[in-house]
Structures are given as C-alpha cells and as structure tokens.
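User: Predict the complex with adenosine-5'-triphosphate.
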Amino acid sequence: MMQTVRGVHDILPDEVAIWQFLEAKALTIFGLYGFTEIRSPLFEKTELFARAVGATTDIVEKEMYTFADRGGDSLSLRPEGTASVVRSFVQQSLHRQLPWKVWYRGPMFRYERPQKGRQRQFHQIGCELFGPVGPLADAELMAMVMHYLGDVGLQAALVLEINSLGCLACRTPYRALLIAALRQAAAHLCEDCNHRMERNPLRVLDCKRETCRATVTAAPIMLDHLCLGCRDHFYQLKGHLETLGVPYVVNPRMVRGLDYYNRTAFEVTSVGLGAQNAVAAGGRYDGLVEQMGGTSTPAIGFAMGMERLVLLLDRQKILARGMDVYLATLGASAENAGLVLAETLRRGGISVELNLGGGSLKSQMKRADRAQARFTVMLGDTEIEKRSVIIKDMAEGVQQEVARSEIMDYLLTRL
Ligand code: ATP
Ligand code: MG
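Assistant: Here is the predicted structure with adenosine-5'-triphosphate placed in the model:
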C-alpha cells in the first residue's frame, strides 16, 4: 500500500475547515494592520537559504530538502518563508515604497525527527514588515500576533516571551564571553551543544535537553551586555507593550534558530503542547536585506506553526457547520423533482446535500445526520401531488408541511 512520506500528512476534508478558519482570520486580522498577501515559490536556489538563514544553522546544515534539477542547479524546498520574501523585496527594489507589509501562508519543508507538532512538511502563516526601525513596529507586530491568536480563541493558553539579541556591535563581544563560559561548562553539555558552541553559541542557550538547560542558567545573558541603542530599543518596546496592555514575559535565554535576527526576538509559547511548545516566533532582522544585496532596510517578521495551532484549537467549536439541508427523495418522480429543487435552493445560497441514490427514508435520515444537516427536506409522490414538502428541523425533531412556493422563505428565515 502506498503511504505518505514520513513526517508528511494529508489534511483530510474533516480537518480542512479548521485550516480555512485560520487562514480566513489571517486575511481579516492582518488586513486591519495593512498587510497584504504574497505567494512565494515553494523552491529557490539553495544559495538563497544558505545566505539568508545562515550556513551554520541546523536548517541549512541538516534539514533542507536539496536536489539538483536537470540543468544541474542546486535547489531547495523552502524551509521557511522569510528568505523568499526578502529576495522578492530586493529583486523588485521595493525599498522605494516603504513600509512594505506582507503576509504569507503555506507549506515549509524540513528534514526533522517527526513527533507531535513537528513534521517534515508543515505549514506556516507569517508576516514581514519592511521599513520601520523603531520599537513601535515591534510592538505593533506583537499586538497583531496576539490579536490574531485571541481572535481564533487561543490567547488564554498562550504566553508572549520577548528578548533582545543585541546588534553586531554588542553581540560580538558578548558572543566571546559566552563561548568562554560554555567552554568551561563543556563537560556538562550535550554533544550537539559542544559542536554548536564555537559556531553558533547562542543556540546552546536554547537547547531543549534538561542537563544543558540547567548548565546554561549560569551562562552570561545578552540582556546584561546590550549597547546603549539596543538597551533603549528594548526598554521602549516594553513600554509600548504595557501601553497597549499586551502581557509579556522577558525570557533572556530565548534565541532564534536562524542567524539573521538582531535586537527584538519573540516567541509565543503554549503550556498545552509539550516539547514543541512554540506556536509563533519572530524578530527583527535589520541587516538581512543588505546582506542579500539590497539597499539596507530594517525589517521585522514572525511565523506561526499552523499544525500547532490546530492541535490547540477546540475543534468542536470550529468544525464544519454541516449542510443546511439534506434533501431526501422517495421514488423516481421525486428524484427528478429533487434534482431541480436542490439546484433552486443552492442558487438561493442554501447548501444542499441531495440524495443521489435511492434508499429507504430511514437510511436517508442516517445520511442526513452524517451530513450534519440542519433540516431534512422530504419529497415523495404524495408531496409532489400536493406541491409541498415535509421539512424536519433536525435539532428540534419537529416536522412541518410547507408549500413548494414557500420553501425558500421558510428555510432562509430559520437558517
Ligand atoms: P522549534 O524550536 O519548535 O524547532 P523553530 O525555532 O525551528 O521552532 P521557526 O523556524 O522560528 O521555528 O518557525 C516558526 C514556527 O513554525 C515555530 O514556532 C513552530 O510553531 C513552527 N514550526 C517550525 N518547525 C516546525 C516543524 N518541523 N513542524 C511543525 N511546525 C514547525
Ligand atoms: Mg526547529
């Protein structure tokens, strides 16, 4: 039997309503803040991700789906969305029309160890904001994330964590301090961290292993070593969040897996997800556009993991409202009349599941239940003669005869 690739899943019809709900909310909420959607390619030159995400990141070192196309170019399935958006920004010289605000949705690909909330093909909704350099933009973006998560019904379960990663000027000396401290503690750190610590030492602070976590509590933190500009930026950001009434906690050991971040980093975490507890993550990347060959432009963005949001949502509340009507028919002439009636109702905006294949009334009522129909409309020879139908309210259990000419009004006033 053919099966999906490990770590890759179908999103089945039963689940799709939740995804559509999340996407529709993104369109609405992000629209309130002036963001419009961009659709980037699913694959790019490998070099784009190596340069944007960073050659020493886990993503580029071991998680990309990289292949040579028939012309011999090295291409990769996108592991994240920011690199393509930045490429697009540079390619189209958009620095002339700032601010540029875009959001995206879609699949990302990483060769990771699949577990709950961690797939090899997963989906993100993300936003990128180009132009503003000050902390107002950071605060507004975080307010937008929390607005979105609140609107889909999740805010109560979530915590906004913030940190500052400094800038090139203050991170360089801090990095040296950190490496020195990590070297001293090397014996207590896992193999991965021993490997990481020279090349990407900040990542060690973020290791999920219990022993590493305990060990790094003693390591120096960036927040104690920020330069004046970075300290001020962080201080103002906290003030703006307080003014907005957006609750947050400072997590000085939160770093980002990707190299391009500076200053503000943030994550939204949930208590309900176990080890994979980050539902959204983002931050400022003021140097990336220039690094990618564009005109230096500050920027900030975030991405949310949709599978993790889906895990947290109360399905019952969102799941597909059923059909408005199940149309049950008994006998050949009723089947003909039903075909026409169903079409008429649909043109009036009423969703109809029509009985397409005989069956007793009892078996059709079962199908009506399965379609979660609000009403079952029953049509047999008697009703055809009387130019009427029987309409059963499935929740109330009551039924009523309604004239054919009245059906549309009858249903529309009750739906
Ligand atoms: P994590 O620490 O969970 O690996 P990350 O730092 O790799 O996350 P980002 O690259 O910042 O995450 O991606 C943003 C969001 O995308 C994450 O917070 C998470 O919700 C989601 N995400 C990342 N990788 C996966 C994956 N393999 N499967 C499902 N969701 C993912
Ligand atoms: Mg990861």
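The mean pLDDT is 92.
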